[in-house]
Amino acid sequence: MKILFLSSRIPYPPDRGDKVRTLFLMRQLAKLGEIHLLAMVDEKQDAKSIASLTAEIHNCHFVAHSKKRALLNLLANIFSHIPFQVAYYKNPKVFAKINELCENHDFDLVYTHLIRMVPYAQLAKKAKVILDYTDCISLEYSRSLGHLSGIRKLFFKIESSRTANYEMRVANLFTENWVISPVDLQKLGLKDHHRSVVVPNQVRISDLEASPGLKQRLIFTGNMSVPHNIVAAQNVARKIMPALLHDFPKLEFVIVGAAPSPEIKLLDGLNNTRVLGYVDDLYNELIKSDIFIAPMYFSAGIQNKALEAMACGIPVITTPNVAQSLDAHDEVELMIAEDNHAFVVKTSYLLKNDIARAQIGKSGKALVQNKYSTEAISQLIAERINHVIHS
Questions:
Q1: Which residue range is the domain that position 377 belongs to?
Q2: What is the CA 206 to chain-centroid distance, rounded?
């Protein structure tokens, strides 16, 4: 089987949720045949990643996409109905490269990551095409509006509407659509769509066991340049930690993740907050913590960060939207908090209750093992590819 893998970002290193997903899927598909990766890159910034993937994948095709070109695309798109995120990635060299590849290879399958790559996937006329929406991007945009103001709020309001229309419009273009959770499938309006299925993220189950006893350490992880992660970390450091420190003066809040923004760096030292940035072994930091705390009020899709904490047996406290996407239940596999006050109450309860912490951590890990383990998702992907090829 010949496979063309289309991505707007180089799927390496796996330092953010979308790259974790694309790297895993690329490696799974590479087991099924000859894979050709086409990714848009910043040649200078991605130089090490390009070298790493070229050593792993024999057929790599990287096309430079500069910020200057992207910004010009946005300006040209102001009066269009196309989402800005689709326009942002418009590049004549990508169109030319895909045409060249399709002329020289009879691809059986084309994997397309995110709606922004739809115009390119449409060039593959003879192949079976999978569009991986991942999550409902328009939902994240609409949820973010309450946390924005001024010109940014106006921009995201326009983009939310454009993206929602585009998400629906492209649903029937290809052989199959993949969505990360049942919630996103419903929000996209594809719940009963016969070409659309749920393919969740996978997560590695930790071989490490957290030591018993209170460590007085909260943790939050993720790519720290992403808006919903920035807001979540700020909420903990500025609003939740001051209330918790009254009863737990030695309590520490640790922020772990690549590319911390200036706003995140400012939190270091505030209310017993430490910003660690990128770490080589994320699971080692998780097992040293008591609770994973994630007040993510406007995220969409499955949050890998929550799955990773649960995979380590660390109890998670998060918002209803995150729990719903994971199909996890309050006070069973995790704890749900709807506002900052509820986060304080539930975090205090778990810090004081060793048995509850251990039980929720154990149940969360069992959920991940059953539904999101590497083995479970690998089998699901093989089944979907078989269905797509023979449909």
A1: 2-202+373-389
A2: 19
Token representation of residue 237: 């450091």
Burial bucket for residue 148 (CB in 10 Å: 0-12, 13-18, 19+) = middle
Enumerate the β-bridge partners of residue 296.
none
Please report, as a single letter, which amino acid is at residue 362.
K
CA distance 361 to 160: 36
Give mean pLDDT, residues 48-53: 97
Tokens representing 116? 């922004």
What is the spatial distance between Cα 341 and Cα 346, in angstroms, rounded to a whole number? 9
> What pLDDT digit, counting tens, does each position of 237-263 carry?
999 999 999 999 999 999 999 999 999
Tell me the per-residue pLDDT of 142-180, one tens digit each, with 9 for 90 and over. 888 887 889 989 999 999 999 999 999 999 999 999 999
Beta strands 176-179 and 196-198: pairing type? parallel
Same domain, 163 and 84: yes
Same domain for 180 and 89, yes or no, is: yes
Query: From CA 120, how far away is CA 110, in angstroms rounded?
Result: 10
> Please, are residues 202 and 302 in contact by the beta-carbon 8 Å criterion?
no
- If asked whether residues 135 and 244 sit together in one domain, one would say no
